[in-house]
Structures
1.
Amino acid sequence: MYKCYQGNIVSGTESFSLLRIIGENLLQLGMWIAAGYLLWPIVSVFGLPLLTVLWAALVVVIQILLKKHNCSGCFYYDKLCHLGWGKISSALFEQDSGDPNVGSKLSLFYIVPPPIILVTSIIFAAVGKVAWIYWATLALYLVLNIATFLLRKKSCGLCVMRQVCFGSATK
């Protein structure tokens, strides 16, 4: 565990249920897929949905880097946190192999893109002629963001790292 975290551990849940882990990850995945769909028609280059391709690459790269820089030094390394990422991190990286300062910057991924995607999609939908499915996906994206945040905030409130984790939704 990163030395900067060791003195700041608080009481919390030692291991989360598999059902909770699957549910939270499905919500995240649904939100990322909805975002990709919303970005799909905005910019195409040679028939490729450029923003969707960039979004998918960004999601994959950020998720891998988060596991290294945040999760490799976490209390839940090789344990079941509410997202199951401690187990994923231990399968991919050695313990304490990341940099918590980099992890803190990467955690902005959960704060910055959602409103940008939402505003961009609303502007695109208002200016362009989009089908009702686009508006429905936009509404779904908003609902998934709210649900994910609320569930994540509740789960993070049970985490022993909630005081020091850069990705904690309790702050």
2.
Amino acid sequence: MPRQEIFLLVKDGDETIEVLKTYDQQFAKEAFRNMDDSALAHLASSLNLEAIYEPSGIPKPTDEGYEDFIWDVMVDEAREDWNSFSYFIVTKSRGRETEELFVSGDWPTAQSYVKLLGIPDEAINNNPA
């Protein structure tokens, strides 16, 4: 798994939650494809689409092309400079199995998703990463 930097590492028994910062767009796209509907809704709400687009230009979650639209907007948010993009990927590991749960273009959105997983603030703020 391509890793750039660990932003958060929280262990609870045999389960580990990590937030990884990566510049690997392919890895970010894989994580995006693994997101469930609630993760996609969380990402979409964090993008503040109404401030960027007219309501008629925002596809509905049931529309064809909705996920591609959200991906494209998130990639724009992930831009660090002209040709550099960084992504924050939330993973959960149990034993030797790791799954990507969420991806965003910024740390605060990834952090807020981790909170939705039930990780307490003190574990997030006082982590060893």
